[in-house]
Amino acid sequence: MRTERQSDEPGPAERERQIQNLQRRPDRAAAGLGGLNQPARDGPRGRGDWPPRDERGLRGRGSNSLGRGCPTRDGTVKRETWLANGSMATHDADTEAQHVVVQRNGPVLLVRLNRAERGNAYTQSMLARLDELLTEVEQTQQARIIVVTGSGSRSFCAGADRGELATRDWQTVLHLASARVFERLRTSRCITLAAVNGAAVGGGLELALACDFRLAASSARFWLPEPELGLLPAAGGTFALASIVGLAKAKEIILGGAVWDAQEAFRWGLVNEVVADDQLLSRVEAWCERLLRRDPVATQLAKQAMQLERGNDAARQFALVAQSLLVCRGSAGSRAAGT
C-alpha cells in the first residue's frame, strides 16, 4: 500500500512549483502575526491562550518581548532587549525588518517566523536575528524553553529564501549560516520545541529537526527537495534526520524524495504529537507547563549527555564541503552555458 501512495507523489517539476508557491502565494490566515497568534475566544484554555503560566503558575503581564518591534506614542518603533542584569534596553528598529517576532513570558520564549507571504522562508537577516537571540538567551540565563513556529496556517518554514539561494557561492555554503544557527539551537541549554503549523520544507524541516520536540498540526507536510535541485540538505538534514527516524527512512526522504504527512511523520518518530490545526498552540502550552515542572539543572545535563552520545562533527563538515562543491559545480555550469 505504501508503494501505491508514493506512486501518486508529484514529480520534480511539480515539487519545484509547490516550493515556489509556498514562497509566493499570500497566506490569508496571516493577518497580524498569523493564525497561531489570534486571541482566545473559547475560555482560558483556548487556542489563543498564550503565553503559558510561568514557574509560579502565573501568566505574564501583557506581552513583554525580546527583540520585538514595539510602537511608541510618537509612532516610532523600538526593539526591546533583555540584558544580563534583568533590565530592558530599547533600540530603534525597522518594522519592515521584523520577520522574527519573539514573545517572552517568564521562562518561555515564543519565536515566530513572521514572513507568511513567502511561506516563512528565512533570509540571512532572519538567521542573524536568530543567532543574536540565542546569544541573548545564553547571556541572560532567563529562558528555559524556546518555542519556534511560523506565521499563518499554510507553512511552518519553506526553507531558505529562493532569491538569496541564487546569489550564494561555494564559500558562503562552506560556512553556511543556517547550519551554524541550527546547531546553536540544537545544543542550546534551553529545551526547544517546534510547533509545525504547516509545510516544513528543506531548511524549514532542518530547523524543526534542530529542536528537541516537534508538535505538528494535522495539515503539516515534511520533505527535503534539495537533491532535486542539485543540492544537499546541509544544515543538519543528512545526519539529524537519520538519528531520529533511522537510516532507511531518512534515505526514503532524502534520496527517494518522499513527502510525509503529519501521521506518517508521527508513525516514524519525526514528530512527537499530531493535533488538529486549531489546537496546536494550546497543546504547545500544555507541553511547556509540563516541562517547566522538571528540574532545570537535571534537564540541561540530561540534554548535554544525549548530545554527546549522538554528536558527529565529521558528518556535519562533510555535508558542508559536499554542498559547497555542488554549488561550485552549478556556478561553473551556468558560466559554460552563458547564463
Question: Would you kindly provide a brief summary of this structure?
Answer:
By secondary structure, the protein is an alpha/beta fold. The chain is built from 13 helices and 13 strands. The longest helix has 24 residues, at 313-336.
Strand content: 15-25%
Oligomerization: single chain
What's the overall average pLDDT, rounded? 75
Number of strands: 13
CATH topology term: 2-enoyl-CoA Hydratase, Chain A, domain 1
List keywords for this structure.
339 residues; alpha/beta; 2-enoyl-CoA Hydratase, Chain A, domain 1; four-stranded mixed β-sheet; 40% helix; 17% strand; disordered C terminus
Which SSEs are present, and which pair or pack?
Layout: H1 2-7, H2 12-22, E1 69-71, E2 77-82, E3 88-92, E4 100-105, E5 108-113, H3 124-140, E6 145-150, E7 155-157, H4 162-165, H5 170-174, H6 177-186, E8 191-196, E9 199-201, H7 203-209, E10 213-217, E11 221-223, H8 237-245, H9 247-254, E12 260-261, H10 262-267, E13 273-275, H11 280-292, H12 296-310, H13 313-336
Parallel strand pairs: 5-6, 6-8, 7-9, 8-10, 9-11, 10-13
Antiparallel strand pairs: 1-2, 2-3, 4-5, 11-12
